[in-house]
Amino acid sequence: MKKAAFAIVLTLAGLSASAFAQANFVFHADVPFAFSVDGHQYSAGTYDLMAKNAYGAILRNRGTGKSGLIPLISPQLTKTAKPSLRFSKAGDKAILLMVTDADGQSWRVPVSRKEKDEARNPESKTIAVAMR
Fold first, then answer.
1. Which of 2, 8, 130, 131 would bridge 27 by S-S if both were Cys, CB 3.0 to 4.6 A apart?
2. For residue 58, what are the domain limits?
3. What is the pTM (predicted TM-score) of this model?
4. Which residues, in sequence order, are bridge partners of residue 96?
C-alpha cells in the first residue's frame, strides 16, 4: 500500500514539473494599442512577457516599468508555433485573450464578465501581435 501511495506522489510530482517546464519563456512584443487583462488597464507600448510558472506570467511595460501578473489557464497545443498575444479589439477597447509560445503552447487569459460582453460586440476583431 505504501509503495502504491509513493508511486502516485511521484507521478503527480512529475506531472506538475512537466506543466512548469511547458511554461518557460521570455518574449517581447510591441503592442500598438491600449488593452486590458483581467480588468487591469495597460497602455500601448513595448512589453516583456516572462513565465513565472505554469499558471502565470509577468507582463512588464518597458517604457513605464508598470507590471502585472497575468494568470494563464488551460494550456493546449496549437497548430501555430509563432509566439503571439491574441486580443479581441472593438474600437478603442482591446482585451488580451491568449498567449502562445514558440513551441505552440497556448494559454487562455481570464476575462471578466464585462470584458466578455465587450468581446461579443459584433464589431470586435481578433488581432494577433507577434512576440519575439
1. 131
2. 2-130
3. 0.78
4. 87
Residue found by looking up cell 501578473 in the block: 69
Asked if 3 and 33 touch (Cβ cutoff 8 Å), the reply is no
CA pair distance 77, 79, nearest whole angstrom: 7
Q: Exposure of 35 by Cβ count < 10 A (0-12 exposed, 13-18 middle, 19+ buried)?
A: buried
Contact 57, 51 (CB under 8 A): yes
What does the block give as the cell for 8?
502516485
Q: Exposure string (b/e) for 92-114, b if CB count within 10 Å is 16 or more? A: ebbbbbbbbbeeebbbbbebeee
- Beta pairing class for 56-61 and 84-90: unpaired
Q: Distance (Å, rounded) from C-alpha 98 to C-alpha 72?
A: 8
d(CA 110, CA 97): 7
Domain count, the chain: 1
Can you give the pLDDT at residue 23? Answer: 58
- Helix (H) or strand (E) segment spanning residue 129: strand 125-130
